[in-house]
Amino acid sequence: MFTIDTGAAGNSFLCTVNPLTGALLTSLVMNVNLGGVAGMAFDPVTGVAYVADGGFGGTNMLYSLNTLTGTATLIGPLGINSGLAGLAFRGPAQSGVPDGGTSAVLLALAVAGLFGLHCAIKMRPRQGLG
Question: For a surface tag, which of 13, 28, 51, 118 has the fewest beta carbons within 10 Å of its beta carbon?
């Protein structure tokens, strides 16, 4: 099982953990220092690991990740300033379930909608209590 430790000193580490005990097995220094939040997921079809980061000190970028070396390869910007704290893939398409392309569009629309809601709440004038 893999996890990312964004580290207190700005160093990011790719770690392997024993899923039965939670014991740390290995720790690799990554070539990218991620921000205060990061998400990682494996594409179930290709097995490629992807990482997105953001938050305080983050790059707000999407990377592919070599889990043998800890090397993150830049794919591009996330398009939002606050980054992402999680990533997920759904399993292979089933009858009646949208294909990968449709799912990606739906996910993008959902993220854009949540970001818009977040901005709307932040911009809303505060009302007095009395």
Answer: 118
Q: Are 84 and 23 in a shared domain?
A: yes
Contact 50/44 with Cβ under 8 angstroms?
no
Entry pTM = 0.66
Provide the domain count of the chain: 2
User: pLDDT (tens digit, 9 = 90+) per residue, 18-54?
Assistant: 999 999 999 999 998 888 778 899 998 899 999 988 7
Domain that holds residue 105: 94-130
Whether 84 has a pLDDT exceeding 60, the answer reads yes
- How far is residue 1's CA from residue 49's CA, in Å, rounded to a whole number? 12
